[in-house]
Amino acid sequence: MRPSVGIRDVAQHAGVSNATVSNVLNRPDVVAPATRQRVLAAIEELGFVRNESARQLRAGRSRVLAYVVLDAANPFFTDVARGVEDAARDAGLALFLCNSASDDGREREYLELLHEQRVEGILITPVDAAQLTDRGTPFVLVDREATDGTWCSVAVDDVLGGELAVTHLIENGHTRIAMVGGPLSIQQVRDRREGARRAVAEAGLPADALTFLETRSLQVGEGRNAGERLVGLPASRRPTAAFCANDLLALGLLQSMTQQGLRVPDDLAVVGYDDIEFAAAAAVPLTSVRQPREQLGRTATQLLLAENEPDHEHRHVKFQPELVVRASTAIRRTS
């Protein structure tokens, strides 16, 4: 095995002091250009690699950000993470990606580990925001509003998003609508349901025009299960349209309709949420409420990097959703 090369070896090879090599690595602007080039050439020739762990130990912090996602299987969060990574790289930082899988115990374990690793900061879509404690590591909440001002946060107006989705269905003639989503422990699901209810009320429809089908998760399989439950409802009150709390549920619902010999949108109009790439590529292109996924990630990272600035004040940035209409919804003509 090749022996590791240290600062002393580089200094000897370049004919300079250890302190000069350290300055080239950490404060290159204080070293004369000719000397700096000689040291860099020695680093290249010897294959020297900085001991980042030792540097972090001395500095008391790392050059790493972390993003704790709620569900790594959901393309929404991988798109957000792409925006986080782009902003982190622009700042010369690396990114740890951790998946809580909607498990608060797993989330606590990751947070403990990240605090121990002295990461620069943590971006998180929390299972339970109440368990976040100030231990000296900056936090920014992603896709979740920090209502008490304790943390910076970025989110989308999910109440408005739910309202846009259901208003669209009502304007297309639907008066019996299902909302598919859950569990209700997830704030985004609660907000989107609130928006759906608001749309029903503003249209002058009775509250029971909206049927809520709660799911155990926001995965494709739960969407398929919801489709079976929906078709099993009595014909007299079976919804003619469905608003799903995310696109994965909507894609599962589309699959279920096909398996049961029903047509979308003729037998059931469907609206999803997030507008992930698969929404437009579905067998029946999916109408969806679009969130600016990568922009969420970039903005959250910029807020996190600003945490150490003098006179920093916590900010909440809220983006507006946009309804993207495709073939899974169509005007329902009444006789």
Task: Describe the 3D structure.
This protein has 335 residues and is an alpha/beta fold. Helices cover 42% and strands 17% of the residues. It has a six-stranded parallel β-sheet, with helices on both faces. Strands 7-6-8-9-10-12 form a six-stranded mixed β-sheet, with helices on both faces. Helix 10 links the parallel strand 8 and strand 9. Helix 1 packs across helix 2, helix 5 crosses helix 12 and helix 9 packs across helix 10. The mean pLDDT is 90.
Radius of gyration: 26 Å
Give average pLDDT, whole number.
Answer: 90
Number of helical regions: 12
End-to-end C-alpha gap:
82 Å
Shape: elongated
| H/E element sequence | HHHHEHEHEEEHEHEHEHEHEHEE
Q: Report strand %.
A: 15-25%
Question: What strand line-up does the widest sheet have?
Answer: 2-1-3-4-5-11
Largest sheet: 6 strands, parallel
Q: What class, by secondary structure content?
A: alpha/beta
